[in-house]
Amino acid sequence: MSVDEQVLSYPIPNDAALEPPAEWAELRSTCPVAHVKLPSGDRATLLTRYADVKKVLADPRFTRLLNAPDAARMSADENGGLFSSEMATIIPDSGEEHQHWRRLVGKWFTARRMTAMRPAMTRIAEDLVDDMVERGAPADLRAGLGFPLPVYVICDMLGVPAADRDRFSYWSDTLLNLTRYDKAEIDAAQAEFFQYMSDHVAAKRAEPGEDLLSELIAAGGPEDGGLSDLQILVTGMALLVAGHETTANMIGKMVAMLLADRSRWEALLADRSLIRTAVEEALRFDANAGFGLPRYLKEEIEVSGVVLPRGTTVICSMAAANRDESVFEDADRMDLTRSPNPHLAFGSGFHSCLGQALARTELQVVLEVLLRRLPTLELAVPVEELERVEGLAVGGLRTLPVRW
Q1: What are residue 314's phi and psi, to 5 degrees?
Q2: pLDDT (tens digit, 9 = 90+) per residue, 352-400?
Q3: What SUPFAM superfamilies has UniProt attached to this entry (predicted)?
């Protein structure tokens, strides 16, 4: 049976940690608007072509408010985690309010500010590599570098103690849940996280520091052109989750991709000027990107000749779109020199990832430090033995065993 005649389970099962599911190419060519069944049992519509994904992400008629009564639930427990929790409704979704929120928060994520933060990021990466070397090979690069680096950086930006990072990791996993946690665990974790951030915002109000939350508080409330207390609190939670989980996973996947074919690592050792384009290509080439972006349709619309009724939940697979041959020549080959590279790893349009300059800088710094400090780095297990993170909305590797 061809893919256009069946309802696929989504996320599409895939054992290979770094390879795309075979269904992507078939869906793009024969069934770009496909029916899928989510872990909750609900139906949704999956988009895999570049043009369609880009169009939907830029169209304000597709909203990210997935708590409408007829929206598909991502997971079997009604909570819906990050996508359809009450939290998702507190940060404005669209229009002038959303733009205002982005302007206030986005000042902390400019390329200029990232350049200023780069030396501190480099020092953190150097220290983490020192610790790994001291403990000796083989090492888990995800635990030793991939996970702690973004956590230290985002904690620093929010003025949050990095010593609490294991708690953040658990809380963010429960918010990104698809099938791993039950409702009671998720509710308890979200309540703890909410209380923690509430206490933290109150402490910042009493004693402001040089951090993003203190600056948001100083901007005043909504009547002064600032955010409400609740919006500041939820912004802190959202940035903590988004700021460490996705980048931590991407660091591991990027290094794994480069070491899976040793010639890629050798090319970077020979020419460090390729680091920037290599990072962009790793973002494009990532076949283990997680769930994709769900959107809820407020009115009927046509995509690739298919009419989608009001109330449809659409899932944009940016990772599948990033392998679209009509946009990327030789799309299934990792080309470290690829330029231009208009990938959709950070989304597109007015909801594109606020922290993309931060993520890019962290990924570049990791490569600079590893190439300089551990030029003989290699995988400590065959690539076939790398395992995917399962049951969460983000894609990643469980561990990345390396030696040098």
Answers
A1: -110, 135
A2: 888 899 999 999 999 999 999 999 999 999 999 999 987 776 789 999 9
A3: Cytochrome P450
Q: What residue type is assigned to position 319 of the chain?
A: A
DSSP 308-346: EPTT-EEEE-HHHHTT-TTTSTTTTS--TT--S----TT
State the residue range of the domain holding 65: 3-403
Residue 83 has which token pair? 């996508």
Q: Which residues contact 21 (CB under 8 A, 6 or more apart)?
A: 12, 13, 14, 287
Instruction: Report the distance separating Cα 362 and Cα 247, nearest Å.
Output: 8
Per-residue pLDDT tens digits for 196-242: 999 999 999 999 999 999 999 999 988 888 999 899 998 998 888 87
CATH number at residue 206: 1.10.630.10
Q: Return the pLDDT at 161.
A: 84
Distance CA 77, CA 80 (A): 7
Angle (CA) 231 235 236, round 5°:
120
Alpha-carbon distance values, 159 to 126, 152, 244 (Å):
22, 10, 14
| Rounded CA separation 65/81 (Å) | 12
Count the Cβ atoms, other than its own, within 10 Å of residue 309: 11
Q: Which residues pair with 8 in a beta bridge?
A: 36
Looking at the 3D structure of the chain, how many domains does it have? Answer: 1
Supply the Cα-derived Rg of the chain in whole angstroms. 21
What phi and psi, each to the nearest 5 degrees, are found at residue 35?
-90, 130
Residues of the chain with pLDDT under 50: 1, 4, 78-84
Q: Residue 399 — φ and ψ, nearest 5°? A: -145, 160
Q: Which residues pair with 134 in a beta bridge?
A: none
In this structure, the number of other CB atoms found within 10 A of the CB of residue 185 comes to 15
CA 52 to chain centre: 20
User: pLDDT for 280-302, tens place per residue?
Assistant: 999 999 999 888 888 999 899 99
